[in-house]
């Protein structure tokens, strides 16, 4: 079998490329084949640690590709999810897809989640041959911006940007109560971060007496449920956050069936060093909540 490497496949190790192509063949088998010269690059024996370049030609034995015995149920729920996600695509280019994820939809499967955006990878390929890759996550209950890389190469670049904190993330939230300071930095470890630092900046946009506040939050680290727990640590949990209401004996004045937390804005630095910015429209249920308290969002955002 012969394959020519294109731009999207370059800069990855040969053995990793083969495992992705052929359903994760055992490493010891690959090493044996490489030693015997059964795997060639540009008609020569090659080490599996070699990093692929555009135009490289790989020759391998005729592996029998056994597809995983997983039956994807193209049922009504999956088709409905596909239609919802496709309608909420805000941006699509050769590197990434930006989705405005509705609240209540999981990014990955979990013990209590049988359907997620991860199930839609085939449907989000569009004209591309590669499966897209989810490179970060937001909570099921949280709405807003989700980035999906369209190729292996773009997933490496974008993942690195998130890891190195070069992506500026802005969340919009409505809190029960008002933080003591108008602007601040929360630098408190959280329960599920395995003693790692968790840092969030915030600024109060508007407050209604001492009852509720509208804030923008800027997570500088990406711990699980970081924003929600940091707001709880401020004594001002996000309205609708049932998980953290239960941990506080204080009676809160406001509640909502929806979590009033929204991944509002993302700012990237592209490979050519230019900046790119995306915003997700505020959900209707947040707008209705604001209207009920005579809050005009366009005046503060």
Give the helices and strands, then pairings:
Blueprint: E1 2-4, H1 14-21, H2 27-35, E2 40-41, E3 44-45, E4 57-59, H3 76-87, E5 89-92, E6 96-101, E7 133-134, E8 143-149, H4 152-163, E9 168-176, E10 183-186, E11 200-208, E12 212-219, H5 226-233, H6 242-245, E13 261-269, E14 275-279, H7 284-292
Parallel strand pairs: 8-13
Antiparallel strand pairs: 1-4, 2-3, 2-4, 5-6, 6-8, 7-8, 9-12, 9-13, 10-11, 11-12, 13-14
Structure characteristics:
301 residues; alpha+beta; Pseudouridine synthase; 3 domains; four-stranded antiparallel beta sheet; 21% helix; elongated
Structure description:
With 301 residues, this protein is of the alpha+beta class. It has 3 domains: 58 residues, Structural Genomics Hypothetical 15.5 Kd Protein In mrcA-pckA Intergenic Region, Chain A, CATH 3.10.290; 88 residues, Pseudouridine synthase (2-Layer Sandwich), CATH 3.30.2350.10; 132 residues, Pseudouridine synthase, CATH 3.30.2350. It is 21% helix and 24% strand. The protein contains 7 helices and 14 strands. Strands 5, 6, 7, 8, 9, 10, 11, 12, 13 and 14 form a 10-stranded mixed β-sheet that branches. The protein has a 4-stranded antiparallel β-sheet with strand order 1-4-2-3, with no helix packed on it. 29% of the residues are buried. About 3% of the residues have low confidence.
């Amino acid at each position: 079998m012969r394959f020519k490497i294109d731009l999207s496949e370059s800069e990855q190790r040969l053995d990793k490329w083969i495992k992705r192509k052929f359903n994760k063949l055992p490493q010891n088998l690959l090493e044996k084949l490489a030693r015997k010269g059964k795997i060639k690059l540009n008609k020569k024996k090659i080490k599996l640690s070699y990093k692929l370049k555009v135009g490289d030609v790989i020759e391998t034995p005729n592996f029998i590709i056994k597809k995983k015995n997983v039956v994807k149920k193209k049922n009504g729920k999956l088709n409905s999810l596909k239609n919802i996600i496709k309608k909420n695509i805000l941006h699509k280019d050769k590197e990434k897809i930006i989705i405005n994820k509705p609240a209540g939809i999981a990014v990955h499967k979990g013990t209590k989640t049988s359907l997620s955006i991860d199930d839609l990878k085939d449907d989000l390929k569009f004209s591309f041959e590669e499966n897209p890759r989810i490179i970060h996550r937001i909570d099921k209950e949280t709405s807003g911006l989700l980035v999906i890389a369209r190729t292996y190469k773009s997933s490496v670049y974008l993942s690195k940007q998130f890891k190195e904190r070069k992506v500026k993330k802005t969340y919009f939230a409505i809190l029960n109560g008002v933080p003591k300071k108008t602007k601040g930095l929360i630098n408190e470890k959280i329960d599920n971060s395995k003693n790692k630092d968790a840092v969030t900046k915030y600024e109060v946009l508007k407050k209604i007496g001492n009852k509720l506040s509208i804030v923008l939050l800027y997570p500088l680290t990406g711990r699980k449920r970081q924003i929600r727990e940091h707001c709880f640590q401020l004594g001002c949990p996000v309205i609708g956050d049932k998980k953290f209401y239960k941990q506080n004996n204080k009676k809160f004045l406001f509640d909502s069936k929806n979590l009033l937390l929204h991944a509002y804005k993302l700012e990237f630095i592209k490979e050519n060093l230019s900046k790119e910015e995306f915003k997700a429209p505020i959900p209707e249920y947040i707008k209705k909540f604001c209207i009920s308290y005579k809050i005009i969002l366009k005046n503060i955002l």
